[in-house]
Amino acid sequence: MAATAFLLRSLHFSPAEPRNTPHEKSHRSAYLLWKMMKGPRRRSQAVAAYNSDGNGDLEGDKKQSSFRPFGFVTDNPSSRSAIQLPESPAEDGNVGQMLYRIEDKGRDYGSYVESGNLRWFVRETGSSSQRGIILFIHGAPTQSYSYREVMSQMSGAGFHCFAPDWIGFGFSDKPQPGYGFSYTEEEFHKEFDKLLDTLNINSPFFLVIQGYLVGSYGLTWALRNSDKVSKIAILNSPLSVQSSLPSLFQKLRIPLFGEFTCQNAIMAERFIEAGSPYVLKLEKADVYRLPYLASSGPGFALLEAARKANFRDILNRITTGLSSANWSKPILVAWGASDKYLPISEAEAFQKTNPEAIQLKVIEGAGHMPQEDWPEKVVEALRRFL
């Protein structure tokens, strides 16, 4: 009996102790937290259950709100409802299974177009140009998928809409640098001209621009081809030499570290989330992730383009070229007010450089990619402007 009592004490059990002691309850709470985090539950639900049932180490609502194991989580209700965990770790951990699950996603309204020696993936909505043609240009490291909702609604309003994936991005060709394409600004402009000819876009069209790097190339192309553009709408793009350069592009320009960075398969979705008050739902994140999962090509294309871009020179040309001294055609700056990369003050300063031509529309609740965060408000702004 003495030996049995000693053994029970060593195992922290005692016949006299009540069940569910604090020691046992903490283990049960940890198990409950682990079990809830396994399934497709909201992380906030798991944390709430831990606090209400397990007591844990958290002291009240203050510590509960600071418990953020995933740093991109925000307090926005849409953000919280978007966060989901997979049914099984293999969906996020096994590349083959992930590709099989998402390989047919993200090609809304799109088809392949042969232009010169390259194949572009181009989204198109609307069959007539009753109210004109709109060409949508995306930024790096994303793709034209971000415009799908805006395109659908604008074509319903009578516009003929096109949105290509830049070469090296999305579902377009990603040639190895130096073999037919080297990802310089000049080459992007040259191939873009060829694509317009292939699409039979001849009359002046409306140009919508968003984002860094290749988005900026859309603006520098417009400065060289002002006769082909009737109006320009700019959504959250760098507009001055003082514009901040996100850490992604800074990392890409560091030798060796850039090679490592460019092969991060979740780079695009994390870039979008870091500039927005929201996180992407799984079905959207899948599409932005897919090109970087499928091959190393888009990562190395982005690396090459980022290293060859002279950001300061590009932005200086944009600021000067669109100033009142050099530009008179209408410009709409539709700006997501919650952009974490580019503050609203940048759009306000840009508007002052050409107040006669530039209109500023602030889109509350949207971040760096307002066409993804709040497409309805972008459509409203575009319809009034165009």
From TrEMBL:
GO CC terms: chloroplast
Single GO term (MF): catalytic activity
Chain ranges of the Serine aminopeptidase S33 domain: 129-369
SUPFAM superfamilies from the UniProt entry: alpha/beta-Hydrolases (SSF53474)
The organism's place on the tree of life at top rank: Eukaryota
Name this polypeptide is given: Serine aminopeptidase S33 domain-containing protein
Lineage: Eukaryota, Viridiplantae, Streptophyta, Embryophyta, Tracheophyta
